[in-house]
Amino acid sequence: MSLIYLILLALVQGITEFLPISSSAHLILAPEVTGQADQGPLIDVMAHAGSLLAVLIYFRRDIGAVAIGKLALLKGRMTPGGRIALLVGASMPPIFIVAGGLVAFDLVDTLRSPLVIAIATLVFALPLWLADRYGRQVDTLETMSFRQAALIGLAQLFALIPGASRSGVTMTAARGLGLTRQESARFSMLMAIPVIAAFGLISLIELARTDGAAAGANLANGLIVAGLSTITAWAAIAVLMKLVDRIGFLPFALYRVALGLALLAFFI
User: Fold this and answer.
1) Which residues contact 223 (CB under 8 A, 6 or more apart)?
2) Contact assessment for residue 228 and residue 48, using Cβ atoms and an 8 Å cutoff
3) Element containing residue 102 per DSSP (H, E)
4) How far is residue 36 from each of residues 44, 70, 108, 171, measured CA to CA in Å?
5) Which residue segment(s) compose the domain that 183 sits in?
6) How many CA atoms lie within 13 A of 113 on its CB side?
7) What is the reported pTM?
8) Fewest CB within a 10 Å sphere: which of 90, 145, 203, 207?
9) pLDDT by residue (tens digit) across 179-208?
10) What is the 8-class DSSP label of residue 135?
11) E-assigned strands of the chain?
C-alpha cells in the first residue's frame, strides 16, 4: 500500500469522522474510486484510533472532568463531570450488544457494499435536516435527561450501516430530542470515545491473528494513518464546533444527497 494512498485514507478519515457524512462510507469507497485494493477493517480502525486521539485532545477538559467525576461517584458525590460520564454510559449498551454480536458471528463486513452506502447516505440525509430544522434548541449536557441519552444510544445502532454515519445519526437524534446544535455535536463526539476504543481493541485482536510479517506491515501502515488522521480530525472538530451554530446541518444533508445520487449513478 503506497504512502500516498495511506495519506489519502488519513485525510478522508480525519475530515469525515466527526462530520455527519459517514467516515466509514468514505473509507470503504476509497478503494472503489482509486482502484486500490480494499485496505481492510484493520486500517479502517487504526484510522479511527487517530480520530479517537484527536477527540481526546480537543475535549481534554471534558475528559478531565469526567475522570474526576467518576472518582467522586465512587465516594457517593455527583459532579457535572460524573453526570456526563453516566449520560454517555446510558447511551452505550445498544451499540456494544449489537456490534458484539456482529463481531462474534463474523458479520462485520456483510454490509460493506457501494449500494448499501448509497442508499444509507440518501435515506439518512432527510432526518438530519428535519431534526435540525424543527428540533428545539433548549437542552445542554447539563440539562439533558438519561432518557434522552438512552434514545440517542438506540439511534446509534444505525451507525452499523455504512453510509448512515455514527455522528450523523447521533446528532440527528440529539437535535430531534431538543439539544442545541453545539451540544448535539459535543455529546456525539464524547459518545465516540468508548465506541472507537472498543473497535480499537478489536483491531489489536485482528492484528494478533495475522502472521508476524503481515502484522508488522499492517501495524506500520496503520500507525501512519492514525497519526495523520489525528491532525486532520482535530482540525475538523475545531471547524465544526465553531461553525455548527451558524451553518446548521443543512449543508451536510445536501452533501449526503449529492453523494448518494452520484454513487447510485456510478455503481448501478
Assistant:
1) 46
2) no
3) helix 93-104
4) 14, 45, 21, 32
5) 3-267
6) 8
7) 0.90
8) 145
9) 999 999 999 999 999 998 988 787 677 666
10) S
11) none
Amino acid at 91: S
C-alpha cell, 90? 446510558
Return the amino acid letter for 198: A
Separation of alpha carbons 8 and 240, rounded Å: 21
- The radius of gyration computed from the CA coordinates of the chain, to the nearest angstrom, equals 18
Instruction: Report the alpha-carbon distance of residue 105 to residue 213 in Å, rounded.
Output: 27
Beta bridge partners of 139: 179
Q: What letter represents residue 133's amino acid?
A: R
- How many domains is the chain built from? 1
Residues shown for the chain: 268
- Between the two ends of the chain, the Cα-to-Cα distance in Å is 28
136 DSSP assignment: -
Q: Residue-wise over 132-147: b if at least 16 C-beta within 10 A, else e?
A: beebeeebebeebeee
